[in-house]
Specification:
- By secondary structure, the chain is mainly alpha-helical.
- The chain is built from 17 helices and four strands.
- It has helices at residues 43-60, 62-79, 81-100, 119-152, 174-189, 191-210, 222-225, 232-268, 274-321, 324-346, 354-381, 388-419, 425-428, 434-440, 445-475, 484-503, 506-537, and strands at residues 27-32, 35-40, 156-157, 160-161.
- Helix 1 (43-60) crosses helix 8 and helix 14 packs antiparallel against helix 15 (445-475).
- The radius of gyration is 22 Å and the shape is globular.
Length: 542
């Protein structure tokens, strides 16, 4: 259970930052009818107006914005792929460096602080918040996509590669294609995304629990900006964090809606299309609202643990009734392939596989970075009492290994169905439907497909719920107990942004906004990395 002690009061020795700033001193406190508000006067106002304007303009000019979103995503990923890949590598190297250095002995919350949550509760929340919907959407479709493009080999047109295969492909080689496909998939879901989350989460936890600053993104920059973080430099950082989080979440909610719609069509013949997806977004946002009202311990924690149990049930079922031996051996061979291909996959320069590195990797890194304020703050809030070494090893390795297992079980099963059983339906299905086609070839298909839809919905709810809590903390100047109507506002607008993007271009629009908000926040996160190291260096060690 969670410790009821005020988490902002450290236990043992810390090196706090002395500042005259009081949490909430720039806030506007007022009543709007029966509702009380406690909002940061600039961060909330600018962020909220920008989001409202975006939703209104996208809904008004749906046909005009669709090509705009497509060209924006293409330009950013094709011109800045080297920047996203380089940044991802920096975050991994810094995390490993901190874990093995003496700074790893620093304890979040003070030298004698005790963890607020058990390992089981902690890991459940890490996993559900950080990857949920994406694992359901891409668990089958990504390994299968990379396998298919690798088997097809490379194709050239006017001296430029036009295929989507990772690296040099493995034309006609089923074993080589599977190794390359799983290595590329694990690369996108392993150490790199979790290092992105870990850096920001570590900074937020350190500057809040040890340094005594508000739990908001600007606090991480105190060693570099000093008291200026309370002015416009800090306002801009927090506004970028709110917008990145909102659009990163909307991308995931849009993916979740498209997959749930595909599953409902598959099971119950409910028509596919925007209407079904929008009804799903509205319904699941309503469920998320009830969880938001329940709070972190009663809402997110309980839902995360339920989801973990359901995900494990589905995982174990596929292991037992699927190609069990291939899955068992595949886990280790896939890890070996990941280690083998990692240097080439992480290389940011001189890539020939431009479609793969730009269309897959650069998009993923921007998406993870746009999620980092949300996941980072969420991880920070539940990680008090851990040492830096324990924190980094746990946040990097445990979820990464869970993702390897998930991709091996679901992606490996689908590839085995194609190669050994000649089952083409799973390879030929649309991306959101591929997990259901994979389950269809196994026993109890109706039951497991329904369970998969439930998982998508609950992952959707936990993401929306925890995202609303985090955005509200930032927009309330670091207050963790701001009035509930503010969380309701952000939860509703996450749903509205997802709806606007679905109508304004679907998956391309969702991806475009994740990349667009991820780019400026990548710069923010790189600067934050320097600040985190400086902050840790000044802390007493246990």
């Amino acid at each position: 259970m969670s410790d009821k002690k005020d988490p902002m009061i450290p236990d043992g020795k810390v090196n706090p930052i002395s500042t005259d700033y009081k949490i909430g001193q720039d806030n506007i406190v007022m009543n709007l009818g029966p509702f009380g508000l406690d909002i940061h006067n600039r961060v909330f106002a600018i962020s909220a107006l920008a989001v409202i304007a975006f939703v209104a303009l996208t809904l008004m000019f749906q046909t005009q914005v669709e090509p705009l979103f497509g060209s924006m995503r293409g330009w950013l990923t094709s011109n800045l792929d080297w920047f996203f890949l380089s940044a991802g590598n920096i975050f991994v190297v810094v995390c490993i460096g901190l874990a093995v250095s003496p700074l790893g002995k620093v304890r979040l919350g003070g030298t004698t602080a005790k963890p607020d949550y058990s390992y089981t509760g902690w890991f459940s929340m890490l996993f559900a918040a950080g990857m949920g919907i994406g694992l359901m959407f891409y668990g089958v479709s990504e390994p299968l996509s990379h396998f298919g493009t690798s088997m097809g080999g490379t194709t050239m047109e006017n001296g430029v590669r036009t295929d989507w295969a990772p690296l040099g492909a493995a034309m006609g080689d089923a074993v080589g294609s599977e190794r390359l496909a799983m290595a590329a998939t694990i690369f996108h879901w392993g150490l790199h995304p979790w290092a992105i989350y870990a850096i920001l989460a570590l900074g937020l936890a350190l500057f809040s629990f040890n340094k005594g600053l508000p739990l908001t993104i600007r606090s991480v920059f105190y060693p570099l900006l000093g008291e200026r973080i309370w002015g416009w430099p800090g306002h801009i950082i927090d506004i970028l964090a709110v917008l990145a989080t909102l659009f990163g979440l909307a991308t995931s909610l849009g993916l979740g809606a498209s997959q749930a719609a595909a599953g409902l069509n598959y099971l119950f013949d409910i028509p596919l299309g925007n209407t079904t997806q929008i009804v799903l977004v509205i319904g699941i946002t309503a469920i998320a609202l009830t969880s938001v009202l329940a709070g972190l311990d009663a809402g997110v924690k309980r839902l995360s643990e339920i989801n973990m149990v359901l995900a494990i049930l589905l995982l174990v079922f596929v292991i037992i009734v699927g190609p069990t031996l291939a899955i068992a051996t595949g886990f280790f061979s896939n890890l070996g392939a990941y280690v083998e291909y990692l240097p080439a996959l992480a290389n940011p320069f001189g890539r020939e596989d431009a479609n793969f590195s730009q269309g897959w990797t650069a998009f993923y890194w921007a998406w993870w970075i746009s999620w980092s304020p949300f996941v980072g703050m969420f991880i920070a809030r539940v990680s008090r009492g851990r040492t830096v070494r324990e924190f980094i090893v746990s946040v990097l390795l445990v979820p990464s290994l869970a993702c390897v297992l998930w991709m091996t079980v679901f992606g490996g099963t689908a590839i085995t169905q194609v190669v050994q059983d000649g089952y083409r339906a799973v390879a030929e299905a649309a991306l959101p439907l591929q997990i259901f086609q994979m389950l269809d070839a196994l026993p109890l298909a109706q039951l497991t497909s329904f369970l998969a839809i439930v998982l998508v919905v609950v992952f959707f709810v936990t993401s929306s719920d925890s995202g609303s809590l985090v955005i509200d903390v930032i927009a309330a100047g670091g207050k963790v107990d701001a009035p509930t109507p503010q969380r309701v506002f952000w939860c509703v607008f996450e749903g509205l942004v997802a709806i606007a993007l679905i109508l304004g271009g679907g998956l391309v629009a969702l991806q475009a906004m994740a990349v667009s908000t991820g780019f400026p926040f990548t710069v923010v996160l790189l600067v934050a990395t320097v600040s985190v190291v400086k902050g840790l260096a000044s802390e007493p060690r246990a």
